[in-house]
């Protein structure tokens, strides 16, 4: 892992961009925290889940300028959470949060909230004005979490194949510099209700 992008909890946790050498640690994190994969895909993470996450790119024709897989590591290097991000996705200053997973043992502790808050401040500092994500409809914990963060639905997409399941996604957006969902939809037509 590199020297870190930002710190949380008085420096007890550091967010770092993960690299190829971190794939085994990310795989161990996924296997120790399988709830997301079981809920959304119907099975625990596969043997190559971390490598797939590191290699995952948007489809051709979907523009972006940067991509990160970020690990939130404690002082001993153990992963507490992870996030995957794209900058300038589909439009300038729109950032996409592809995945955010906190260790199951931290759920309900407030720590995932602190991790996300620090991540959002970092993205804002990097120029993000809009954040977007997709949450699986029926993943009640995630739906509540993102709603509490100020994300609002713009549309539903699907069905999409996730692992062994067909799922519908709730596409959600949050302005970081003011603005309304209608203004966002002038930038990202793909997220308008009824779009293919």
Describe what this molecule looks like in 3D.
By secondary structure, the protein is of the alpha+beta class. It has a single domain (6-191), classed as Gcn5-related N-acetyltransferase (GNAT) (Aminopeptidase, 3-Layer(aba) Sandwich). Helices cover 28% and strands 33% of the residues. The protein has six helices and eight strands; from the N terminus they run ββαααβββαβαββα. It has helices spanning 23-32, 35-41, 49-55, 111-125, 140-148, 181-187, and strands at 6-8, 13-17, 66-74, 79-87, 94-102, 130-136, 152-162, 165-175. An eight-stranded mixed β-sheet has the order 1-2-3-4-5-6-8-7, with helices on both faces. A hairpin with a 6-residue loop joins strand 4 (79-87) and strand 5. Helix 1 (23-32) packs across helix 3 (49-55). The mean pLDDT is 94.
Summarize the structure.
With 196 residues, this protein is an alpha+beta fold.
Pick out its properties.
single chain, 196 residues, alpha+beta, Aminopeptidase, eight-stranded mixed β-sheet, globular
By CATH reckoning, the class would read Alpha Beta
Strands side by side in the biggest sheet: 1-2-3-4-5-6-8-7
Number of strands: 8
The structure class reads alpha+beta
Can you identify the CATH superfamily?
Answer: Gcn5-related N-acetyltransferase (GNAT)
CATH architecture: 3-Layer(aba) Sandwich
Count of separate DSSP helical elements: 6
CATH topology: Aminopeptidase
- What is the C-alpha radius of gyration, as a whole number of Å? 16 Å
Specify the biggest β-sheet: 8 strands, mixed
Domain N-acetyltransferase: 13-177
Organism: Roseateles violae
Protein name: GNAT family acetyltransferase
């Amino acid at each position: 892992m590199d020297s870190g992008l930002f710190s949380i909890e008085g420096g007890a946790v550091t967010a770092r961009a993960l690299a190829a050498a971190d794939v085994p640690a990310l795989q161990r994190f996924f296997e120790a925290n399988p709830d997301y994969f079981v809920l959304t895909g119907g099975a625990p993470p596969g043997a190559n889940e971390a490598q797939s996450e590191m290699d995952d790119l948007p489809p051709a024709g979907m523009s972006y300028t940067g991509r990160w897989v970020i690990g939130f590591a404690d002082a001993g290097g153990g992963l507490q959470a992870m996030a995957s991000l794209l900058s300038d996705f589909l439009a300038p200053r729109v950032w996409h949060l592809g995945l955010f997973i906190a260790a199951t043992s931290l759920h309900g502790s407030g720590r995932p909230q602190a991790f996300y808050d620090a991540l959002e401040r970092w993205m804002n500092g990097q120029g993000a004005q809009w954040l977007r994500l997709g949450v699986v409809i029926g993943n009640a914990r995630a739906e509540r979490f993102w709603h509490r963060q100020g994300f609002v639905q713009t549309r539903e997409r699907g069905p999409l194949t996730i692992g062994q399941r067909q799922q519908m996604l709730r596409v959600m957006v949050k302005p970081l510099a003011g603005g309304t969902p209608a203004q966002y939809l002038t930038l990202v037509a793909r997220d308008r209700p009824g779009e293919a």
